[in-house]
Amino acid sequence: MARGTYATINLDALVYNFLQVKHLSPRSKHVAVIKADAYGNGAIPVAKALTPYTNMFAVAFLEEAIALREAGITLPILVLQGPYAYQELENTKTLNLHWVLHTETQLAWFSEYLSHSDIQGHQWVKVDSGMHRLGLPMNEFDDLMRRYPTVMSNKCVIMTHLAAADEDDQTQTNIQINSFLSKVSASDFALSIANSAGAIALPKARQNFNRIGISTYGSTPFCSDRQITLRPVMTLSAPIIAVREIPKGDTVGYGMTWQATKPTTIATVAIGYADGYPRHAQNGTPAVLHNRRISLVGRVSMDMITYDISNVENVKIGDMVELWGNQLPINEIASYVGTIGYELMTRVSKRVPRKYIHAKEKT
């Protein structure tokens, strides 16, 4: 019998979230970003659920695209990091891939590929408008367009990535958008600017293609909740495997970092940092048991966490604890451990089974 620790993935909530953002920009096409195993939610089930609603998918690199094709996913796939070698381009037609080209080397590879291929419109050229991570320098755009005319033709999508669209102060983001548009909008290119935050909050970023990632999975991209209501997709749960009473003054866990200030009921829960729960979660980080909040006490171990459950009655071994999800926003847990919801989702390890449900089912 399995230990009972699992991540429940609500596919109805997933679709709801995607459509919430999509409906903000009805004239745009939409790219569902499912890199990193759909942010830990499972790329293949997520792709199957979103296929009726998206125009294409996006992954980080070729191997992620191949896995989708082997699972029968047929929509076009955008490879966000582009080709790592010229030979990867030979998969363009057979796998129906679109490539983000962000270096001059990649432009040269694709130019060579086009010289012996009849394929059209499978190139996205990325311009660095201020993120300074990937992309061709803005001041070289015109020169590169002259030197690689077959690549940077009207069959091409020109894209950029916003550095701070999720911040409350949009001053720098608007500067970035305006700088990008002033450079490329005079040409007859399809454009892509918006990520989740841009698609939700910045009408000017909603161009021909929007790339929708984190919002699909129910985590707001913003530093504060605003703009849109999203439903949690992943609920991480684990069972209680031991309950004990400890007296005032006793400590819990490695390093004796938490000491009881009064007689306390402690529950040990079958999940730990090997499952992806952050080891650096502090005393007081919440979870939910029997619809009541409980507090983490002691250090997170490899396979177990301990909680003070003194405020909850009638607890027994096997009762389920929610680490985040329906009753506890993942971004709240992220704030306790100094990270973001993206990281928590993608950290959930393969030894935690994913259970796929629809909204009408109980978690």
Automatic annotation (TrEMBL):
SUPFAM superfamilies xrefs: Alanine racemase C-terminal domain-like, PLP-binding barrel
Cofactor(s), by name: pyridoxal 5'-phosphate
Keywords: Isomerase, Pyridoxal phosphate
Residues given in the record as substrate binding sites: R133, M302
EC number(s) recorded for this UniProt protein: 5.1.1.1
Domain Alanine racemase C-terminal: 233-357
Active site: K35 (proton acceptor), Y254 (proton acceptor)
Top-level EC class as recorded in UniProt: isomerase
Catalyzed reaction equations: L-alanine = D-alanine
InterPro entries xrefs: Ala_racemase, Ala_racemase/Decarboxylase_C, Ala_racemase_C, Ala_racemase_N, Ala_racemase_pyridoxalP-BS, PLP-binding_barrel
Alphabetized GO MF terms: alanine racemase activity; pyridoxal phosphate binding
Biological or metabolic pathway of the protein: Amino-acid biosynthesis; D-alanine biosynthesis; D-alanine from L-alanine: step 1/1
Gene3D superfamilies: Alanine racemase, Lyase, Ornithine Decarboxylase, Chain A, domain 1
N6-(pyridoxal phosphate)lysine: residues bearing it: K35
A Gene Ontology cellular-component term: cytosol
Protein's job: Catalyzes the interconversion of L-alanine and D-alanine. May also act on other amino acids.
Family (UniProt): Belongs to the alanine racemase family.
Name under which the protein is recorded: Alanine racemase
Species this protein is from: Agaribacter marinus
Lineage: Bacteria, Pseudomonadati, Pseudomonadota, Gammaproteobacteria, Alteromonadales
